[in-house]
Design brief:
Chain A: Its main location: membrane. Chain A: This is NitT/TauT family transport system permease protein. Chain A: Keywords: Cell membrane, Membrane, Transmembrane, Transmembrane helix, Transport. The complex is a heterodimer of chains A (270) and B (255). With 270 residues, chain A is mainly α. In chain A, helix 3 runs antiparallel to helix 8, helix 8 packs parallel to helix 9 and helix 9 packs antiparallel against helix 10. The two termini of chain A are 29 Å apart. Chain B is an alpha/beta fold. Helix content of chain B is 33%, strand content 24%. In chain B, the strands form two sheets. Chain B has a six-stranded mixed beta sheet with strand order 5-6-7-3-8-9, sandwiched between helices. In chain B, strands 2-1-4 form a three-stranded antiparallel beta sheet, with helices on one face. In chain B, helix 2 crosses helix 3 and helix 2 runs parallel beside helix 4. The termini of chain B are far apart. Classes of the chains: A mainly alpha (270), B alpha/beta (255). At the A-B interface, helix 7, helix 8 and helix 11 of A face strand 5, helix 2 and helix 4 of B.
Chain lengths: 270, 255
């Protein structure tokens, strides 16, 4: 039997899915053991038990000076920035995508401009944002918006253009105006695409968030990581990295579930 | 004056002529089949009737109205695919036939309830009442096309345009669809234009069969000339329209 036709059973599939995680963990444990055996005070690869204790402390014990549990405050702050930035970008992306996808005049005027603007590296604009909007919340949110909006606009306008012409013509013969076609035919069909596009752009959004927080902030996940870097506190950094990964994964999973839930016609069509 | 009149229509894309000097007059209630080889302008002609394109020269008018510049509710259309809205349930698709013409594309309050009842009547008529709350993707090809036809007729168009509506269906389903279409037509007396690849289908359903072909052909430059209507068959009574005449001649009946 050819290898491309051999499929793993459910047990083997689960095992294979867990295998890479286990391998990475084992490799880390071995490397950490070797280093700690040579130097018990090594800070670079702390033992998993150390990381676990640190994580417990970070999640439960309040900061001595401020009396707050910093990790939760960092998380809340970062998620607020991320959520705000992504929500604004998604709204702009959806609106502009519909306009560009449906109206030839808009396409003629904006498509080229967006194509050029999307090539500007957003991080290169960060200093400008700090100068213009100050070091507060605004510049961080704006960085996320600037970073992912061009992608969202391009992706969504493409999805609108991909709606079969037959459907648009059909709507016209049923007497629909341009606005009705936009709201009742195009919008509902690109909403699932919007969720897909947002899921794809969450990676860059996190990148911009952490970059902005690392440079100028006094609270936030990215800020904390870069702060404790000074003390070589690998246990704290690794805890935060795992926590961020977990958050990103949960958000992605939730969006996928939301899409299936909100757009049953999509799932049945695939 | 006839109901649909196509006068001296030319259509070319760039320098390439597709249709030349197309003239045809159609009465209200006629079923017109349009046949012809691939690339002979059948679909272009249908797009012109639909007003999705405007002819380079000539005019097409329905019931004496000025030529349309974009698709409008005078015309209903069913394509081979993509004719229904995938994000609406079957019932919503039928309601959309009426509601998309509203300012917000929806009915509210009492009108909404009434539209729903009317849609249920239509669904019962076209045999889709049992799947009213499902989405089109769950339907078979034949059911989707029935839905598309029902949706188009809900908007009460003056003419119905069918672009190879049964092209993607299996032969059995196709025969069922023929019966379905003929029944609907008997009820509504709709003027229909149907493009088809299937000659048998064209003659079976149509009152007239228009054949598109190129009357002039340059072997060194096949695209030099466009197509036009080369034959206009009377297809009533299975393509033998005069059979009835002979049977109704005034032969004195013996007492």
């Amino acid at each position: 039997m050819r290898l491309i036709n051999r499929k793993p059973g459910p047990v083997l599939a689960t095992f294979l899915a867990l295998l890479p995680f286990a391998l990475v963990l084992v490799a880390y444990v071995i490397a950490s053991d070797i280093r700690l055996a040579a130097n018990p005070a090594d800070k670079l690869l702390p033992a998993p038990s150390t990381i676990f204790e640190t994580a417990q402390r970070l999640f439960t014990e309040p900061d001595k000076r401020s009396g707050r549990i910093l990790l939760w405050h960092d998380t809340a702050m970062s998620l607020q920035r991320l959520g705000l930035g992504v929500a604004i970008a998604a709204t702009i992306g959806l609106g502009a995508g519909l306009l560009i996808g449906l109206f030839p005049h808009m396409r003629a005027g904006l498509a080229g401009f967006i194509a050029v603007v999307s090539m500007v590296p957003p991080l290169a604009l960060l200093p400008i944002l700090f100068i213009v909007f100050g070091l507060g919340e605004l510049s961080k949110v704006v960085l996320i918006v600037i970073g992912i909006t061009p992608f969202l606009i391009r992706d969504l306008s493409q999805r609108v253009i991909e709606i079969p012409r037959e459907q648009i013509v059909k709507a016209e013969t049923l007497g629909a105006s341009s606005a009705v076609i936009a709201l009742r035919v195009a919008l509902p069909q690109v909403l699932p695409r919007l969720i897909q596009a947002v899921r794809l752009s969450l990676g860059p959004a996190w990148l911009f968030l952490i970059a902005a927080e690392a440079i100028a902030s006094d609270l936030g996940l990215g800020y904390r990581i870069f702060l404790v870097r000074r003390y070589l506190a690998m246990d704290v950094i690794l805890t935060y990295v795992i926590w961020i990964t977990f958050l990103a994964f949960v958000i992605d999973w939730a969006l996928r579930k939301l899409s299936v839930r909100l757009f049953p016609w999509m799932e049945e069509g695939l | 004056m006839s109901f649909v009149s196509v006068r001296d229509v030319f259509q070319s894309y760039g320098r390439r002529p597709i249709l030349e000097r197309v003239n045809v007059e159609v009465d209200e209630g006629e079923f017109i089949s349009i046949v012809g080889a691939s690339g002979c302008g059948k679909s272009t002609f249908l797009r012109l009737l639909l007003a999705q394109e405007t002819p380079t020269r000539g005019t097409i008018s329905i019931d004496g109205n000025p030529p349309a510049v974009e698709p409008n509710p005078e015309r209903g259309v069913v394509f081979q695919r993509y004719s229904v809205f995938p994000h609406m349930t079957i019932r919503q698709n039928i309601i959309a036939g009426e509601s998309l013409g509203q300012p917000l594309g929806r009915f509210f309050g009492k009108a909404r309830k009434e539209a729903r009842d009317r849609a249920d009547t239509v669904l019962a008529r076209i045999g889709l009442a049992h799947v009213a709350d499902q989405y089109p993707a769950t339907l078979s090809g034949g059911m989707q096309q029935r839905l598309a036809i029902g949706q188009a007729l809900t908007a009460k168009p003056r003419i119905l345009l069918l672009d190879e509506p049964f092209g993607a269906l299996d032969p059995g389903t196709r025969l069922q669809m023929h019966d379905f279409l003929m029944e609907l037509r008997a009820e509504t007396n709709m003027t229909v234009f149907m493009v088809t690849h299937d000659l048998t289908e064209g003659f079976k359903l149509g009152d007239r069969v228009l054949v598109f072909d190129k009357p002039r052909w340059d072997p060194t430059d096949p695209e030099a000339f466009g197509a036009t209507i080369t034959y206009d068959f009377d297809a009533r009574d299975g393509g033998i329209p005069f059979q009835r005449l002979t049977e109704e001649t005034h032969v004195p009946i013996p007492a």
